[in-house]
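Quick one, tokens below:
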């Protein structure tokens, strides 16, 4: 059964088990992470567009914004890891399999890299995309230009949230993330008029979530286009997210 058909089915039938057919399924969570990032970002935008007192802090707004950024970072890493794991397992190499456009030497190189790095353990997510290009004999991305720079910044924000450590920040003190992020996207509209420090109160909002999604997709799609690979998330998105719009 093809990858696309296997994913679209999604449920193993009891009838198949009863007649002794062994059914295996392979999940690709990068698709779920991207959907989550887009869905929660839309909800964050709705909070900021709704009428109400300004400035104000909304627990749901901040929680959704953080979830969206974290999901974007998870998508960026998982989408690359899934393709390397497929190469390692020799999965999806024929017909409409995700790796079918790649040459045998490219797949072999990806599998070798995955083994050598212990499944990409403790590796910067952006570097995994560089490896993919190098395995295919293609020029790596310019680390000083886009989309590499914004993707690396996304990973930095994701890490700041996932590995959060509390710190005192004065309103007149420029946080390290403010130096890197301010001006790249619109600030959180719920905090208009607030004297709170820019990060995270002004910085973590709809503008940030949309920038995170764009940064993750821009890097992934630059590499995927170069490889002529159409992975799980692209196929599901083209099919309309299985009827559930983010």
């Amino acid at each position: 059964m093809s990858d696309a058909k296997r994913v679209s089915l999604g449920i193993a039938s009891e009838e198949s088990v009863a007649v002794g057919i062994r059914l295996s399924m392979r999940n690709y969570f990068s698709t779920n992470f991207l959907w989550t990032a887009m869905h929660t970002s839309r909800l964050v935008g709705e909070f900021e567009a709704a009428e109400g007192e300004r400035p104000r802090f909304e627990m749901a707004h901040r929680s959704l914004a953080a979830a969206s950024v974290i999901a974007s970072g998870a998508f960026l890493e998982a989408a690359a890891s899934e393709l390397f794991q497929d190469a390692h397992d020799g999965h999806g190499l024929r017909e409409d399999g995700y790796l079918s456009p790649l040459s045998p030497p490219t797949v072999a190189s990806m599998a070798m890299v995955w083994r050598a790095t212990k499944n990409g353990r403790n590796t910067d997510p952006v570097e995994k995309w560089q490896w993919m290009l190098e395995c295919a004999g293609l020029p790596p991305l310019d680390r000083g230009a886009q989309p590499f720079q914004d993707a690396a910044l996304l990973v930095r924000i994701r890490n700041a949230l996932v590995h959060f450590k509390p710190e005192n920040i004065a309103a007149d003190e420029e946080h390290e993330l403010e130096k890197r992020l301010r001006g790249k996207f619109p600030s959180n509209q719920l905090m208009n008029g607030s004297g709170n420090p820019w990060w995270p109160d002004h910085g973590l909002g709809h503008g940030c979530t949309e920038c995170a999604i764009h940064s993750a997709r821009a890097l992934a799609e630059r590499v995927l286009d170069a490889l002529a690979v159409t992975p799980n998330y692209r196929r599901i998105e083209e099919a309309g997210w299985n009827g559930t719009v983010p």
